[in-house]
Amino acid sequence: MTSDRAHGRDELRTIKVLPAPPGLGFPDAKQVMLIERHVTDRKTGKQSAVAVLAITNLTPRQADPETLLALVRGHWQIEVLHWPRDSATFREDAHKLKTTRARITATLRNLAINVLRLAGEPIAAGRQ
Question: Is-above-0.70 flag for pTM?
Answer without folding.
Answer: no
